[in-house]
């Protein structure tokens, strides 16, 4: 019979300051055993790294942003330089001094590896480490904790190639183990309990790794595989932009210029001239000027959605 799974919040951590050794704070407060997973909030990792700041939030957000995914009123969803997609780049002002902001640590996987190595040095135990943070989810109300860094733990378990209990083959099932651990740990720690470290015990041994492993970076979806790389309104604005600039986040689909012209459905009285590898001109008489403009806009939209930086012009000839 498998060992019971337990989640124990560690009491007595206290306020973390810049320069604190997190592993040294945790080690005396809990008797770790091999195979435990120590979940540490990103907030205390950022505090220990001295990242707390009183800088302007907009300035800090711009610094943390790789690209904006969506904006609505005061809410900005961005993709960070880590590859995470989060509101306000994960910048937080809760559970810290008034007027202070905490950005995410720049290398969460690296921090997880460092804490793991230090815990081994202090306790002699081989444990996994997860660095967690709170995030919202598309199509779901509320937030939950996710793993933004991990070491010594399989971040994703792939079931493809196995059969379910009815003998049917599994194709895409892949539990995000590190995220599940982070979310469950939050139930034990609580948002307001002042207990930013949770020890998870009883996790199936095959989910633990002797080496540090690929880290939580393995959970991040590559932008080329992201079907929802922009907010709905932002996607429309980008797709209809006059410049027709390529916008990262759209699914990359191989399409030739001829394919795009065919999909655009060239109306009668209008022609498309290919002037170069990435340049098109829509040609029409004054009688069909409106149709020419509509076709040009469709081509801009299609080019953007297919990751093509086409230059599309319109020429009205007598």
Automatic annotation (TrEMBL):
Record-linked InterPro entries: F420-0_gamma-glut_ligase-dom
Coenzyme F420:L-glutamate ligase-like domain span: 59-202
Domain of life: Bacteria
Protein name as catalogued: Coenzyme F420:L-glutamate ligase-like domain-containing protein
Organism of derivation: Aeromicrobium alkaliterrae
